[in-house]
Write a structure and sequence with these properties.
The chain is mainly α and 291 residues long. It contains 13 helices and no strands.
Amino acid sequence: MRRNNKLGWLFTSPYLIFTLIFFLLPLLWSFWLALTDWDMISPTINFVGVQNFMTAVKSPAVQSAFLVTYKFLLVFVPLALVLSMVIALLVNSLPKFKGLFMVAFFLPYLSSGVVTSLIVKGLLSYNGPFNIFLRNTFGLDIDWLGDPKVAIFIVSLMIAWKMSGYYGLILISGLSNINHEIYEAAAIDGASRWTIFWKITFPMMYPAFFTVTVLAVGVSFGIFTEVYQLTGGGPNFSTNTWQMEIYNQAFVGLKSGYASSIALLSSVVTFASIGVIRKLLEKWGEKNGWS
């Protein structure tokens, strides 16, 4: 028995060491930095207590980043869920080559966020092919990334496109677990496709839908690369997320202690938000027979 325990610890040791070095130690260092005013240059570190947290809570920039992050959540999560659901239903309805099409939809997830952002930025630029086509054909001149509302939608749509194949793969696993006899019984009773989807398919996909929703919410609180490349947090800070504000304070303003306090506050808000959404999803699941 002791030998088996030693083998278990031996096999799990790489993961435990990785977690210790790249998660626990940085987390503890972040807690310490949040209590100081270190600028990453000075050899001395001054202890300031909870002053950074108090300043962050009262900061208009931090409050704005808080609201912007939730705006992304409200736009990105529905887009990602709808796109992934459409992909899952389309691929699942194919008679052949389901795996091939699913791999094709999954490929954007493997692409670099930096490269994707640069391509989108080039396409939507003033002299980009899309704007040239709109000007020459319809006389339209749209500043896609210069309008606050449009910029949030563009960034959210791009991330949803990137993630929908991965989420669709999870939803397909949920679809494959539904007993087809239920569909046959519903068809005999004269149920329409719309009724079958909302009354049978969607409720029975609850475990997969729950997983995808929680993952999408987590992504919406970690948006950085796409915003950094496309808008830099603009226009007028309309896309300045938590992550952008942390980056600006740490590496532009050289306020590592203050940035650490913002990061810790954002992590608390993230976990709390995911917890609330999980509870809502669990209640919805209980109403549909999932416990």
